[in-house]
Design goal:
The structure holds two protein chains of two kinds.
Chain A lengths: L11 E7 L2 E7 L5 H9 L17 E4 L2 E4 L12 E3 L12 H8 L9 H14 L5 H7 L11 H14 L1
Parallel strand pairs in A: 1-5
Antiparallel strand pairs in A: 1-2, 3-4, 3-5
Helix pairs in contact in A: 2-5
Chain B lengths: L4 E3 L4 H11 L3 E4 L5 H6 L7 E4 L4 H4 L1 E3 L5 E4 L4 H5 L2 H6 L1 H7 L5 H4 L4 H7 L7 H6 L3 E5 L8 E4 L4 E3 L2 E2 L6 E7 L6 E8 L10 E9 L6 E9 L6 E2 L1 H7 L6 H14 L10 H23 L2
Parallel strand pairs in B: 1-3, 2-3
Antiparallel strand pairs in B: 4-5, 5-10, 6-7, 6-10, 8-9, 11-12, 12-13, 13-14
Helix pairs in contact in B: 10-11, 11-12
Classes of the chains: A alpha+beta, B alpha+beta.
């Protein structure tokens, strides 16, 4: 008895920059950026939530714009630059947002936290001093079922104050 | 999900060729915010996903000297609302692209993709109808096979449209609004953002030079019919009449009467017909306000 193996579509050659480091790999053409980061690149900080663009748990920055990595194909990042939660802290310490999330207890179970951190960084990188309404509007694409959001908003305000 | 190949053509003719080759087993991807979700839900078995973001005509916003604008089908929402000329001249489009999804979705989701997804509840289609936009479509057979379709004729049912095998939406062209013109879009949702319209209304008006009389109007409704619905009866109630609460109310009632919604988890038939009238009234008033500058 023989097993018939149907060959899948050809993998795609990707050259990209992730958290400032050059990466080159082959990716199945149907694989999401989320799975590409977690399973091929080995960066598991980015989390899977709803897998349909509602929860923001998988938020990463793609060429400076926050996106849901579940709704991007790994093949699409060829020639582009990706920033994930792993790129936020430095050898000198945590990013001010990460420190503020800790101090303000802006997380409980933690699944949504990487997405909130990357999304909030996307805001503060371009608008250092957003008001509360702007913060809440910007983070509307990120869901948290633990904190009730107030602590997250306060953490972003605290980081904003420390960074400006 | 069926494992699909990834194609990234750099010209319209190459994109058309690969779409034509695969027929309904290929779909274009612009932002991917609908197509990837649907592929995972096995709405289609795809052999190929065709990334159209490397095709110049689909990724550019072009402003013409006469005041018209061409928006490439794959241009994401954020590039539209960051375009100052569109903000100044086409604020009704800005109403929609600033409310679609959240920031992450707006980074990717394209107005042309919203149109091709052809959902009755699409926020992007009614304002395009209000602005008299025309869809520029390319197909197999070379340049002779380009065709233009008014946006209100593009959708043919929930999730279906006029695109034939191998055809691709290239751009939406919005004619110059001209003087004394105003347009606006609003929807009703139970949340503040990140939700699907229970009902929506896109309106445009052209007023007389002194701002007193409706000279032309367009009213389109979202989520209350199998397609985004142009309502000529609502426009007819306005055109030729002086701007007044009574005239606007008559147009709003005509919109409510024209709505033929379904009842589902988002809203009842009665609520949606009521919302159609309320939103139409509000958007006529907002359009008048914008027309008067």
């Amino acid at each position: 008895m023989t097993t018939q193996i149907t060959p899948g579509p050809a993998r795609v050659h990707v050259r990209t920059t992730i958290n400032g480091n050059a990466h080159e790999f082959l990716v199945p053409p149907y694989m999401s950026l989320l799975d590409t980061l977690r399973e091929i690149v080995g960066l598991t900080g980015t989390k899977e939530g709803c897998l349909d663009g509602n929860c923001g748990a998988c938020t990463v920055s793609l060429d400076g714009r926050i996106v849901d990595s579940c709704l991007v194909l790994g093949a699409e990042i060829d020639g582009k630059s990706v920033e994930t939660v792993e790129g936020m802290a430095t050898p000198e310490g945590l990013h001010p947002l990460q420190q503020a999330f800790l101090e303000e207890a802006a997380l409980q179970c933690g699944i949504c936290t990487p997405g909130f951190l990357v999304a909030a960084k996307g805001l503060l990188d371009n608008e250092p001093a957003p008001d509360e309404h702007r913060i809440r509007h910007w983070l509307a694409g990120n869901l948290c079922r633990c904190t009730g959001y107030d602590k997250i908003v306060r953490a972003v305000q605290k980081a904003s104050a420390e960074m400006s | 999900m069926h494992p699909f190949a990834y194609e990234a053509p750099t010209s319209i003719s190459d994109a058309v060729a690969v779409l034509d080759k695969h027929g309904d087993r290929a779909r274009p991807i612009a932002g991917g915010t609908d197509v990837l979700v649907q592929a995972r839900a096995n709405r289609w078995d795809l052999d190929a996903i065709v990334d159209v973001k490397n095709i110049p005509e689909l990724t550019q916003i072009s402003h013409y000297p006469d005041g018209s604008v061409s928006i490439g089908a794959a241009v994401p929402c954020y590039q539209i609302y960051q375009d100052q000329k569109i903000r100044d001249s086409f604020p009704g489009i800005i109403d929609a692209v600033e409310m679609i999804g959240g920031i992450q979705i707006q980074s990717r989701a394209a107005l042309g993709g919203n149109l091709c997804n052809s959902s009755p509840s699409a926020d992007g289609i009614c304002p395009l109808i209000a602005y008299n936009a025309v869809c520029h479509i390319a197909g197999p057979g070379g340049d002779d096979n380009h065709r233009d379709i008014p946006v209100e004729d593009f959708c043919t049912g929930p999730g279906s449209n006029v695109l034939r095998r191998g055809e691709i939406l290239v751009s939406m062209v919005l004619p110059a609004p001209g003087d004394n013109f105003g347009a606006a879009y609003e929807r009703f949702i139970p949340r503040n953002e990140m939700d699907i319209a229970v009902a929506g209304a896109g309106v445009s008006v052209k007023l007389s030079d002194d701002g007193s009389t409706f000279e032309a109007a367009r009213v389109a409704l979202a989520a209350v019919a199998p397609v985004p619905l142009l309502v000529p009866a609502a426009a007819d109630a306005l055109v030729g009449n002086a701007v007044s609460d009574d005239v606007i109310e008559a147009a709003a009632q005509a919109a409510g009467d024209a709505a033929s919604p379904i009842a589902d988890m988002r809203g009842t038939i009665e609520q949606r017909k009521h919302l159609s009238a309320v939103l139409t009234r509000r958007m006529i008033n907002k359009s008048v306000e914008r027309a008067r500058g």
